Amino acid sequence: MKIKKKWLVLISLTLGSLMIGIDATSLNIALPTLANKLGASSSQLQWFVDGYNLVLAVLLLPAGLIVDRFGQKISIILSFMIFGVASLTCALSTTPEMLIGARFILAVGAALMTPASMSIIPTLFKKDEQQTATTVLVASATIGLPLGPILGGWLLENFNWNSIFYIAVPIAILAIIVTIFLMPNIQNKTKTNIDWLGIILSSIGLGGFTYGVIRASEYSWSDNGVLISLIGGVIIMVIFVAWQLKAKYALIDMSLFKDRIFSSSVVLIFMFTFIMFGLIFVLPQFFQNIEGVGPQATGIRLLPLILGLLVAAVLGDKLHLSDRNLVGIGFVFAGIASGLGMLITIRSGYGYVALVSTIAGLGIGLALPKLMGLGLSQLSPNKAGIGSSVLNTFKQVGSTMGVAILGTVLSTTYKHHVKINGLSHHLKDVINEGITQGIAVATKIQKTIIVSKQQLENMFNNHQISSTLYQSKLHQLNSMQNNARDLLHSVKTSFIMGTSQVFLICLVVSAFGVLVTLICMPKNIKS
């Protein structure tokens, strides 16, 4: 294939990966608007996001089988068609139910696009070009995460809410055209029977486990529904693995895991995405709730993370280090960022937090593309689809568990430390829901007191109350105002205590990541 053609194909796939990354976060800032425009309930708002993640987790493995069976070109065209049509349907939705259904279909397109894009790399590119191509694809998807709030915020401020979905349609059309005319049609000539039982078991197992993790972030890990989903999902996945070991036509060739590099890459990808999404989960909340900025400004404040990622991705291959060392250094940077994150306070300036973001970006840019490249480099062309699906499944599960587990740690620590005195049970419950609700309650109380003090002042000036009563009421209001200030301070400091615990866990996982890299990865390995 001509050099220019294959890089043009990569650009179209990169746009698709970027689109998936942006879609994952841009919707979050549109949720209040969707609640107003579509009349969506809190539960429906949650399903706009979680339904997509659930379908994506369920379909990643079967999608890899489709890629291997029908070829990358057909799979990529189909994935962009589904994604484009689903995005258009999302934009035209008039009810919450219609949008939820369209998001389900959107996840189908994303599930097929991810392994199809990754698996084309060993087919199109020479061995010495594959890592560069992998880095571009992985970096584009990762950069899309912090870009989502920036782009989404700008679109919401200047256009209607459906513009965040319309933008994907022309990108999908362009990608389809490029793929049709420039990508070679390479198919796996060895057709095998479909492992229907494997597909069913993996879908139910991964779906049940992912649903349990998502539900735990809303309820608790001891909730009956959560426990049933988690335990049931694990049991079914154990049955799935047992079936794969003896099935004649298995969904996953379990011999892949006998490869030391591939199996190590799978584990380390899970660990790194756990850390990465933990950091991405905490930092936006800090910017919005502690610094008090909006969603678009929050996205802009995450630009140092993108800068660090781009610098590391560009310089990684020029350092002349083995992939093992680069991955290890990536985990070290993640650990340093986590350690510095533990020292963040409510008085920390943006410069300090930007430093944490930049170092985290350096770690992501060094480690994640290398890990994906190492995993893909061990796959033969006829196993590229399902192999890349395995890598991306662990990436998806790692990110979901990172948000759920670290979110639970943050919430539990916050509830344990926040001090609530003299308020109704209803307000206590609202404050315990999270820092956003806590700040809203404290701020509303402060505004109410300011209005009450103004009314009291007017009554005194109009001689409607005595000086003694005025002083007594003023003393009560001042006391309530001090309590409201203390509540606001307690809410913020309790959140910071929670973020410190989150960063501590990320630090520990980073340390384990370094150990696993040093022990399991061959010394001079190059993807």
UniProtKB/TrEMBL annotation:
Bilayer topology annotation: Multi-pass membrane protein
Query: Where does this one sit in the cell?
Result: Cell membrane
State a single Pfam family of this protein. MFS_1
Name a GO molecular-function annotation: transmembrane transporter activity
Fetch the Gene3D superfamilies from UniProt: MFS general substrate transporter like domains
Which GO cellular component terms are attached?
plasma membrane
Please state every residue range assigned to the domain named Major facilitator superfamily (MFS) profile: 9-525
Keywords from UniProt, A to Z, are: Cell membrane, Membrane, Transmembrane, Transmembrane helix, Transport
Give the stretches traversing the membrane.
7-31, 51-67, 74-94, 100-121, 133-152, 164-182, 194-214, 226-245, 266-287, 293-314, 326-344, 350-368, 502-525
Q: Which family does it belong to?
A: Belongs to the major facilitator superfamily. EmrB family.
Please name the PANTHER family in this protein's record. Answer: MAJOR FACILITATOR SUPERFAMILY MULTIDRUG TRANSPORTER MFSC
Q: What is the recorded name of this protein?
A: Major facilitator superfamily (MFS) profile domain-containing protein
